[in-house]
Design a protein that fits this description.
single chain, about 90 residues, mainly alpha, 4 helices, elongated
Amino acid sequence: MLDGLAIGTAFNQSTERGIVISVAIACEEFPHELGDFAVLLKSGMTTKQAVFFNFLSAVFCYFGKSYIYDVIHVVGYDVVIVSHII
């Protein structure tokens, strides 16, 4: 969820910053997700189960991004304040 908060805040500041942060997070997350997938398989899950639960955990990134957009655009908090929280 924190990845989504960072992406949402970055895109709110500028499109260029949002793209840079998104690429950086993707580069960090790819090996992380592969490792999680391997652990799930080793714990006895089927490939289908491991893919499902790995996907489910990754979906929370989008909840964080949506939350930031709601807070900034609907409630009206300043981007600087939100970016210091992260």
